[in-house]
Write a structure and sequence with these properties.
The chain is an alpha/beta fold and 315 residues long. Helix 2 packs parallel to helix 3 (91-97) and helix 5 packs parallel to helix 6. It has 10 helices and 12 strands. The strands form 2 sheets. The chain has a 7-stranded parallel beta sheet with strand order 8-7-6-9-10-11-12. The chain has a 5-stranded parallel beta sheet with strand order 1-5-4-2-3, with no helix packed on it. It has helices at residues 42-51, 68-74, 91-97, 116-121, 150-159, 176-182, 189-195, 215-218, 238-246, 286-304; strands at residues 8-11, 33-36, 55-58, 80-83, 103-106, 142-146, 166-170, 184-186, 198-201, 226-229, 252-255, 275-277. The longest helix is centred in the last third of the chain and has 19 residues, at 286-304. It has 2 domains: 31-123, Rossmann fold, CATH 3.40.50; 142-277, 3-Layer(aba) Sandwich (Rossmann fold), CATH 3.40.50.720. Helix content is 27%, strand content 15%. Residues 282-283 line the site of 3-hydroxypyruvic acid. One of its GO terms (molecular function) is hydroxypyruvate reductase (NADH) activity. It comes from Maylandia zebra (zebra mbuna). InterPro entries: D-isomer_2-hydroxyacid_DH, D-isomer_DH_CS, D-isomer_DH_CS1, D-isomer_DH_NAD-bd, NAD(P)-bd_dom_sf. Keywords: Oxidoreductase.
């Protein structure tokens, strides 16, 4: 299989001796996987370890280079490869590594052991493929809304032209006045999970909704369904979401909100190909932010004058 997403190649003019004495080193986590092809001097290993950014495995010998057969096995699916000048990085090796490989770093100033043509070939988008970056269609789908308020209705109005077959929603009680505007059917929480092809969370974060989206919800969803959260990160149990996405329990997630915000770039959710994360920007248009600031200012002035506010949170 061809490598499609090679992003960086680094050459390193290091000349340090020394090393670790243990056999294969393995740090298990959900972080990007790196293979280190040689017992490199401890400073480099310390940097990798301390970074908290990667899990790595090491061929722990300074005397003999990793046998080619072993190397071809070990590089399968890695995100990064740290090699030395004794490893030939050619088409066979890059194919064995596969499409996850993003960075190749060599502990050498010379780069004659790297097949530059093969590396270049794998640096761009690659060729168009029939199922490349395919997703699921809104047409004929069932869209579920968890918490139907003005935002849920506005989302449904925007999705309807894509020929959604059916809108369903759940809330503490049916909300017929809002639901009628989008022809949405009230269902139970379980039915919402079971039927939704796209499930959009639009509820407020309250003690009742905290982590309401957890393994109980995800385990009832279809394997082809997409989970969307634009409300608050706290309504989701992120460990359960990670589990559901990484095991294929659900097909994908789009998150505008997370805990914390912004989500640290080494968070396990960022390692998933089926999770798109934004830094809370769903309302980030000049018009919307102007409207939000005007509303807040007008509410304040009305309140100070003792008049009814345009939007008042009933306590
Ligand atoms: O207004 C809010 O509460 C927001 O989350 C803005 O995106």
């Amino acid at each position: 299989m061809a490598l499609r997403r090679l992003q960086k190649i680094a050459v390193t003019p290091l000349n340090i001796t020394g090393g670790l004495t243990s056999n294969i080193q393995r740090e298990m986590s959900t972080l990007p996987r790196v293979y280190v092809t040689r017992q490199i001097p401890p400073e480099g290993l310390k940097i990798l370890r301390k970074s908290g950014q990667v899990q790595f495995e090491l061929w722990d010998s300074d005397d003999i280079p990793v046998p080619r057969k072993e190397l071809l096995q070990k590089v399968k699916g890695v995100d990064g490869l740290l090699c030395t000048l004794t490893e030939k990085i050619d088409a066979e090796l890059l194919d064995a590594a596969g499409p996850n490989l993003k960075v190749l770093s060599t502990m050498s100033v010379g780069f004659d052991h790297l097949s530059l043509d093969e590396l270049k070939k794998r640096g761009g988008w690659g060729t168009w493929r029939t199922l490349w970056l395919c997703g699921y269609e809104l047409a004929n789908s069932t869209v579920g809304i968890l918490g139907l308020g003005r935002i849920g209705v506005a989302i449904a109005e925007r999705l309807a032209p894509f020929k959604v077959r059916k809108f369903i929603y759940t809330d503490v009680a049916p909300r017929p006045e809002l639901a009628s505007a989008i022809n949405a059917e009230y269902v139970s929480f379980d039915e919402l999970a079971k039927q939704s092809d796209f499930l959009a969370v639009c509820c407020a974060l309250t003690p009742e909704t905290k982590e309401i989206c957890n393994k109980n919800l995800f385990s009832k969803m279809k394997k082809t369904s997409i989970f969307i959260n634009t409300s608050r990160g706290g309504v989701v149990n992120q460990e359960d979401l990670y589990e559901a996405l990484s095991t294929g329990q659900i097909a994908g997630a789009g998150l505008d909100v997370t805990v914390p915000e912004p989500l640290p770039t080494n968070h396990p959710l960022f390692t998933l190909k089926n999770c798109v994360i934004l830094p809370h920007i769903a309302s980030a248009s000049y018009t919307t932010r102007d409207a939000m600031s005007s509303l807040a200012a007008n509410n304040l002035l009305l309140g100070l004058r003792g008049q009814p506010m345009i939007k008042e949170l009933k306590l």
